[in-house]
Specification:
Blueprint: H1 2-37, H2 41-78, H3 81-86, H4 93-122, H5 125-140, H6 145-173, H7 180-210, H8 217-249
Length: 254
């Protein structure tokens, strides 16, 4: 049944993003053509500035839309009128949440990848991108490959945590009879404040402890990144479990 839910959610999202994703590529092509034209004078400057602005705004808009659509699909699909239908299906609440989450995650990740590929094209193809990446590598003197892997996993986990935190906030917000969206926003920011306080406290404790345990900077950094990743994974599981528990026991549809 989860496969059918995923098919339904993906089909609904594709109706929107099959227009947005090609638009990002089109903006990149237009920007590249404007740069390749090499027009001199004020006309060339205006053309490049305009196409660059359009491309940047297009990428930002696509990222924002992917997040907004993910929130709307969860809220309207499970916590409003459509929820009456969804929760009468022979599926469990965790399957409904997981379907929304995987669809949202795929949408956000694909949007990011397409934005990166479009940027590669602006860097004169993959070779140009790797030249820029090599320059940044040399300037920053980045540490081991393990560090880069951990950073990549943390970015991915951050996206997962963001989506699941929003789902949990909406699930808590729907418990109130009035101003549910306002309560959801307040809960979201409340969780953020709590996480930030705990993060600062944990970082201070880690620095105090590791000052006597580690002498290698890379080892200390990798350890810290590993702890961050583990905490993010734990929070993702916690957010998902709490959301499922609330929707299973305390569902209060509008």
């Amino acid at each position: 049944m989860l496969r059918k839910l995923l098919k339904y959610d993906l089909r609904a999202n594709m109706k929107i993003f099959l227009f947005i994703w090609p638009a990002i590529i089109v903006f990149a092509v237009i920007e590249r053509l404007a740069i390749s034209a090499d027009l001199e004078g004020k006309l060339g400057t205006v053309l490049i500035s305009t196409t660059t602005t359009v491309f940047v705004l297009g990428v930002i808009a696509a990222c924002i839309v992917s997040l907004v659509v993910s929130i709307v699909r969860f809220y309207s699909g499970l916590l409003r009128d459509e929820g009456y239908l969804m929760f009468t299906l022979p599926v469990k609440p965790w399957q409904l949440i997981l379907s929304k989450f995987l669809t949202a995650l795929l949408t956000v990740v694909v949007t990011g990848l397409i934005s990166i590929l479009a940027s590669w094209y602006l860097f004169d193809g993959i070779n140009g991108f790797f030249e820029v990446a090599k320059m940044i590598w040399n300037e920053l003197d980045l540490p081991s490959g393990m560090t880069l892997l951990l950073v990549g996993l943390i970015i991915f986990a951050s996206i997962c945590m963001l989506l699941l935190q929003i789902y949990l906030s909406c699930s808590i917000g729907q418990l109130f009879k009035r101003h549910r969206i306002l309560w959801s926003v307040l809960v979201y920011y409340g969780i953020n404040v709590l996480i930030e306080l705990l993060s600062v406290s944990g970082l201070i404790g880690f620095n105090a402890f590791s000052a006597f345990e580690y002498t290698a900077t890379v080892a200390k950094l990798n350890t810290l990144l590993g702890i961050v990743l583990a905490v993010q994974a734990a929070l993702c599981v916690l957010y998902f479990f709490l959301s499922e528990c609330i929707l299973r026991k305390k569902l209060n549809l509008e």
